Amino acid sequence: MSQSVQVVGIYVRDQDEALAFYVDKLGFRVHTDVRNGDYRWLTIQAPDQPGFQLGLYVPGPPIHDAATAQTLKAMVAKGAMPPLVLAVDDCRAAYDRLLGLGVEFTQEPTDRYGNVDAGFRDPSGNGWKMIEERR
Amino acid sequence: MSNDFTSQDPDLLRRLLRAKDRMDAAFHEDWPIKRLASVSHVSEAHFARSFAEAFGVPPHRYLLTRRIERAVALLRETDLPITDIAFQTGWRSLGTFGRVFRDITGETPSIIRKRARAEAGEPGSVPACILQAAQRPDLKMSVLEKRRRSAVDIKEAQPKEV
Known about the structure:
The complex is a heterodimer.
Chain A: E1 7-11, H1 15-25, E2 29-36, E3 39-45, E4 53-57, H2 66-77, E5 84-87, H3 91-100, E6 104-112, E7 115-121, E8 127-132
Parallel strand pairs in A: 1-4, 5-8
Antiparallel strand pairs in A: 2-3, 3-4, 6-7, 7-8
Chain B: H1 10-25, H2 33-40, H3 44-55, H4 59-77, H5 82-88, H6 94-105, H7 109-119, H8 128-134, H9 143-156
Helix pairs in contact in B: 1-2, 2-3, 4-7
């Protein structure tokens, strides 16, 4: 028996905007994009990581009532959602490239114990650390 | 406490977050309300209240937590003289730094440095940048309130260190 994580989702304020950000800027690709009425199941993948999907979901019906959706949207917008980590092989090069694409960085590349990390946010407010680990 | 903390417009919150991020990235700089308000595209009159409603502390107090957090990290991780640490973390006077540091942490910079060295251990595999956020000093009270309360404590018990 084996098990592995297949999908982890994050909340975004707008799926089209998130798709443009994660695909066109960060270089993810779409894994699944299906609609059922207003509901849209949207997942993306890093090209080098076929076993894992990152879901991009909008709080709202049919999963959430209006007040809950509003709370979740507020939490995302104020950066209160859990940390996300993107592993890269060259943090400074990735920073230069993404900065040029207009990604909103919250922290420039910084050396820490031999690793290099930078911070950015997606348009919704989700915070990412981009980490190059010492090899 | 009002319970309508989720009533703030997410677009406003996203812009307030940008001001918070900018303070995080450049906590050693001066952040007058005018500058923060312009980052958030909010009027100066509304910025401080909106920020405090969103993040639970007024913007200036938030900035102080970041400066002290960084000072504590530098005390733990480097051999920099305390004077250098004070100036690197945005204070213009060593006296003010020492006073606010004690007000917030309850201890002097040199005591924190000594204890950090005594306790020095392996931080494990938590990303250092996240660990740093987790070690952020908790600032629920205003600095002045904290000072007032500790003044009361001092009357009740002699402090062990000067």
